[in-house]
Structures are given as C-alpha cells and as structure tokens.
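Exercise 7b. Backbone tokens:
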C-alpha cells in the first residue's frame, strides 16, 4: 500500500504526537536512571552503549518501543532531506532525545533545553490557534560567547509551548581557549552569561521586546550528574522592568559529563566575589563621575543645562556608563565599507521606547545590542551606538554625539575625526553624511560663512568605548563648535583608566558581551518576485473596481530594475551611476506619441498590502495606478536588497506608458 507524500507526512505526525503523549522517551530515561543507580558500582561511571542496551532489554522496554523509535527516526532522516511541512500543526515538534548533531568529543558543551513556559498572564485569554491560522508568536534569541541561536516561533499563550534545545560551545578556539579540554574549575572562571531575549511578533509582522535576561549557567558545575533544572522568571522591559511577564523552564546539561563536579559552596563563593568586585568598581567609577561633574559645573554655570550623558538605562532599567554601549565591532564579510554599514543602520527600523500614559515625555531606554538586533528596530541611541561600533571596527576614530535637533529635541548621532582634521557627522537613522565646517563668531559681519546642512543644533558630549568628552566651549551650538579634542579648554575629558575599569570587555560582570552580526536569511530574488506578484494582483483588483482593464508590460517592468539598482547604489555610496542607460532604454521602449510616467518609492518592510496602501496616498503614484487613456500599459518592479540581520531595503517603481490623446 502506497500513500501520497502529504498523507504519509500527516500520518507520521499523528504517530509522533501519540508517542509524545505516551511519554515513551521519558519512561526510557527513568529506567536508565534507575538501572544506573541500582545495578552499577560507583567506580564504573563511564557507561558503554552495550551496558545501556542490556539494561533496557532486561526491563523489556526495547521490545515495546523499537518499532516506534525506528519509525520516528526514519521520519527524522527523511526530514533532513525533504523537510515535509506539517499539515495540521503550527510547529513541527520533535522529541529532543532524537535530535542529532555533530559534537567534537574534545570540546566542552552546555546543552540548554527550554521545556515550556508558564504564567505569561498577559496571554491568559489567548484563544487556541486553528490549523493554518496566522497568530502572534514568541521567539527566544540567545547569545553566548560569540554564538547566536534562535528558537522556533511558538504561538503566544499563557503556557507557551517552547520545546527547543541549544548546544552552546563553552570552549572555543576563536576566543583563545586553546585546544585542551577544560575542567570545572576553569569553567567557573568563565563569567560570560547566556543572554536570552524574548521577542513577540504580531500578526502583521511587527516585533516587540518582551524580556531580556542574563542566565547564570555555572550552577550546573555543582549539579549532581552535571544536570540541573531552573525556573527563570522573566521581567518586563522599560517602565515594566519590575513586573514579571512569565517563567521559562530550563534544563542545563554538560557534555561530555564532568568527571568531577564542584561543591555548591565553591560556586556561590565565586559568584559572591564577582558581585563584590563589580560593585566596588562601579562604586569607584560613580565617585569619580560625581567629582568630574562637579568640576564641569564649576567651569560655567550654564553647563547644568547641557546634554552631558554619563549614564544611561538599558532595557532592564539598569544604569550603565554610556561608554559600555559602544565597542569596536567587526562585521566579517557581511559589510565591506563604513558607508555600507551606515546604509545597513538606516534600514533598521526606528521606534521610540513605548510610554504608558500621556505627557509627551520621552522614555529613555538604551537597548543592549542583542535586544536591538533581535527586534530589528530601536531608538536613535541604539542606531548611533551600533554605527559607532561598526565604524570603530573599520578603523575610524568614531564617537557618539549627544545633543539636540531642531526645537530642542534630544538626539544622538555619530561623528568621525579624519587624520587630516576633517570632522564628518553620520546620521544613523538615514545614512546621510555631513562635513562639519565651523563658523567663526569673531569673523567680520560681511565675511562669508559656511551654511550648515546638518539638522543638529547643540552638542553636549561625545564618547566611544574608551573616551568621554564634555563640551565646555562658550556655546554648545554645533555650528560654532571646534572639535579639537586635545584642547581641554574646549573639551573636558574623563580619565581613560576610569572608563576602562568599568567599560572594557570583561571588566565587570554587568557589561554584556557584544554578539556578532548574523547573515541575512532573506532570499532577495525570491522575496522580490513574491512582492511583485502580490502588487500586480492588488493593482489589477484596484483598477477592476474602477472599471479599468489592466495590461502588464513585462519588458518595461524589467527595464525599471536599472533605476532601482542605481537608487540603492546612490544611497550606499553617495554616487549616482547608470542613469543615462536607463533613460535611453526607456526612450527606446516608449513609442513616439506615447507618454511614460514612473514613480519610485523606498520601504524597509516587506508587506505588500502596506506598500500598496502607502503608494495610493501619493497623488503621483495614484495617477499611474489609475491611469486612463489609449493603449495603457502598466509596469511594476520590486527590488529587495538584503543586509545583515535580515534587514532589507525595498525599492519599488510603478510605471505606465500610454498614447497621448489631446
């Protein structure tokens, strides 16, 4: 009897779920634990495969479940090649015991399993999602020692069904750990936490930061059998940083198992010493910062009103020195130039931290880098911190500037100092660059002064990962500021040693390590085609409602690609190229007596319906989409440019050609 592939896949899913309900794998684990405890001598802790199989056979378990286990394994093998999609389930769940991965036996690993969540009370009334229904989802993102992981999305619920395992490599060559197997004592000195960020994605694809948590994993070093279970209470972010949002059940396990575990007294003593050391460093820096601020105020009383930002709150409401939010960051082969980095930042979404209630006040929230990247959007401070980090990685002398824009709105941007003294401002929200030429207020009135093109009005301080300067010039207006950072009468510096004591990597346990950037998972060509097809359908339906027929010109659509590529190149490099060829191609494609109209537009999301609604609000675009005339031919071209972290620049051009009838 042969079944169609989709039916076979559905049948296997049902059997698979039945095995999970019976908890067959849990029974096997219980029998193994009991056998090891009762029948094996303490000195024989290293079990062979034969020992385990013999123990199972004696209990009669193998005869009961061999067929089922073999069947599921077959499905697993098939999944690796054809990856059938489940037809009746939102998430394709597989028992963690059957997952296989290549493990280097000479390395030390931490296996972190997320075994469900509970008490997510905000979703208490969330209805059970129907098969195939689009619903809001939770996604858990992890970072540990330069490794990043992302869970499968699960439907939002009071008890979200997280069933994921992550194999974290504790021992890595790239971090200078050498090639020997580390023991428990050495691992105890590795104070990097597992940073966990919980993201909610709604039905429209909008992301929200739910929680950010630093997991202390080293408790497993003192656990019996090298396995421990912890219930992690997640707290909210921003104004809700003291409110519980839910609990995750987490299981930690060492691979290979430790020959010798530590006592709980040793681990707790280590944690206490680290906390005390961090607290003392932070206390000394706070004393120094207060002294620096007093000296700064004594220079000029008006300094009290300047935007000199020494500390900033992260998403968990923790006050940290601003210099700890910046660090030289290399993008590997994901970004090639500083200008490409600026373009990447400009296509990440801009969103202010949410405020509950009115008043118009701005909620301060400087996100950690992982929270910013996982959400793919943030405030101007998040953009500026990341851009400054990338420019430092490219070898430039870069600083984050804190000041104001028009109407006194607080703002941050990035500044680079050239070796020839050229000062360049980089707007991280748009990717624009501005050369700063200061106005000399002592020049005679008729002397020609440079007209500033940048939107910045005042500047209070600048900083990077190892320097901090407060602006102590008579005026804090950007247009008259001189950026001679060696002149202490213009810029009051902080002690580099003081900054280093709390902001250098590994200086304190409260400064989170920076995660690496991830390559895009978006297939630009496939996404471009999908959006184009959707837009064609939307345009045809809209014209049909107006009583108009729609004829598409594929060749004209193809020609528009040249313009879209040129637009993105210009946004990235500031250089315009290829316009002559595009104009010539259009002239050849549009016959005499016909009119051509085109409308390009840029987005940073991939939602075709939102794109179409936005375009219809433009009278120029609506004129093209609703074009009436003789021999009307329509064209639309979508070009998606993928950047790291699956950020996208989406260029779209609508066009039409028709015979002019007077």
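Sequence design result:
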């Amino acid at each position: 009897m042969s079944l169609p592939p989709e039916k076979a896949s559905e049948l296997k899913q049902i059997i698979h779920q039945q095995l999970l309900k019976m908890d067959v794998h849990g029974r096997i684990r219980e029998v193994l634990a009991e056998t090891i405890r009762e029948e094996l001598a303490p000195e024989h802790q290293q079990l062979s495969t034969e020992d385990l199989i013999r123990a199972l056979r004696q209990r009669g378990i193998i005869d009961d479940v061999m067929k089922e286990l073999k069947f599921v394994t077959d499905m697993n093998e098939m999944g690796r090649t054809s990856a059938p999609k489940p037809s009746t389930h939102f998430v394709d769940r597989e028992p963690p015991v059957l997952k296989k991965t290549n493990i280097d036996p000479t390395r030390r690993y931490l296996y972190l399993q997320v075994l469900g969540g509970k008490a997510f009370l905000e979703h208490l009334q969330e209805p059970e999602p129907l098969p195939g229904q689009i619903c809001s989802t939770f996604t858990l993102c992890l970072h540990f020692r330069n490794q990043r992981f992302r869970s499968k999305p699960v439907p939002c619920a009071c008890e979200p069904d997280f069933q994921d395992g992550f194999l974290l490599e504790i021992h890595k060559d790239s971090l200078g750990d050498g090639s020997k197997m580390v023991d428990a004592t050495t691992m105890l000195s590795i104070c990097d936490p597992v940073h966990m960020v919980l993201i909610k994605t709604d039905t429209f694809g909008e992301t929200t930061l739910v929680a950010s948590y630093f997991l202390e994993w080293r408790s497993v070093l003192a656990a019996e059998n090298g396995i421990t279970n912890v219930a992690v209470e997640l707290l909210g972010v921003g104004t809700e940083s003291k409110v519980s949002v839910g609990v995750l059940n987490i299981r930690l396990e060492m691979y290979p198992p430790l020959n010798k575990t530590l006592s709980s007294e040793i681990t707790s003593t280590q944690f206490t010493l680290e906390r005390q050391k961090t607290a003392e460093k932070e206390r000394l820096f706070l004393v120094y910062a207060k002294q620096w601020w007093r000296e700064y105020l004594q220079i000029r009383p008006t300094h009290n009103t300047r935007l000199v930002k020494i500390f900033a709150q992260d998403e968990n409401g923790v006050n940290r020195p601003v210099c700890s939010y910046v660090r030289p960051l290399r993008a590997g082969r994901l970004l090639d130039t500083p200008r490409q980095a600026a373009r990447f930042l400009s296509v990440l979404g801009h969103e202010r931290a949410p405020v509950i209630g009115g008043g118009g006040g701005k909620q301060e929230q400087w996100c950690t880098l992982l929270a910013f990247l996982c959400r793919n959007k943030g405030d101007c401070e998040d953009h500026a911190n990341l851009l400054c980090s990338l420019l430092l990685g490219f070898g430039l002398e870069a600083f984050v500037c804190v000041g104001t824009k028009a109407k006194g709105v607080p703002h941050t941007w990035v500044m680079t100092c050239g070796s020839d003294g050229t000062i360049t401002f980089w707007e991280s929200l748009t990717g624009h660059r501005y050369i700063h030429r200061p106005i000399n207020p002592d020049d005679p009135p008729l002397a020609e002064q440079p007209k500033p093109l940048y939107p910045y009005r005042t500047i209070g301080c600048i900083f990077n990962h190892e320097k901090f300067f407060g602006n102590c010039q008579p005026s804090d207006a950007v247009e008259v500021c001189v950026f001679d950072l060696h002149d202490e009468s213009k810029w009051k510096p902080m002690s580099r040693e003081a900054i280093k004591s709390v902001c250098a990597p590994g200086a304190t346990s409260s400064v989170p390590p920076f995660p690496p950037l991830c390559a895009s998972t978006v297939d630009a060509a496939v996404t471009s085609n999908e959006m184009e097809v959707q837009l064609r359908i939307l345009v045809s339906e809209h014209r049909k409602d107006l009583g108009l027929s729609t004829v598409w010109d594929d060749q004209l659509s193809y020609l528009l690609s040249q313009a879209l590529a040129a637009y993105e190149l210009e946004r990235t490099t500031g250089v315009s190229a290829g316009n002559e060829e595009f104009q010539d191609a259009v002239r050849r494609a549009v016959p005499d007596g016909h009119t051509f109209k085109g409308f390009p537009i840029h987005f940073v999301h991939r939602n075709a319906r939102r794109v179409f609604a936005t375009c219809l609000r433009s009278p120029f675009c609506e004129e093209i989409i609703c074009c009436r005339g003789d021999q009307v031919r329509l064209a639309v071209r979508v070009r998606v440019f993928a950047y790291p972290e699956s950020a996208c620049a989406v260029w779209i051009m609508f066009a039409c050609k028709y015979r002019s009838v007077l």
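Instructor comment: The CA atoms of residues 21 and 507 lie 48 Å apart. The first strand starts at residue 109 and ends at 118.
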